[in-house]
Protein: Ribosome maturation factor RimP
Organism: Autumnicola lenta
Amino acid sequence: MLQERVEKLLDEAFEENKSLFLISLEINSNNQIRVVIDGDQGISVNDCIEISRKVEHNLDREEEDFSLEVTSSGVSEPLSLPRQYKKNIGRTLQVKTADEKIEGTLTGANEEEISLKWKAREPKPVGKGKHTVEKEAVLPYSAIVEAKVMITF
């Protein structure tokens, strides 16, 4: 019952601010509600406050006691939704698949797959030594075990 009411309130909040979206919603047996959100242009503290108020002000603590936490998806958290990949086009990702780890620039993302480009050192086809080659990969989301944005300073 609480889950349905919170989901409905979150849907309303995201209708009011279409640049925000839900990453996860968890409600444990003690009615501790944890909402993780993200946004197409990032997240501000005010965005978290607005979502928190929308939920908290429309639930009755007299009817059912709860605690509420609204947070943004952390910088170290893996990407989980196509919308998150789309907002990170042009950034460097570290992508793990079942059999390899790729660090490359995200060049495209749609609802089914992502495109990455990177440079690698490979043996020359003729002669000794290595040369740098540009590589590309198109990976369906189903092949991605984990993907994180690499932060550079």
Summary: The longest helix spans residues 2-16.
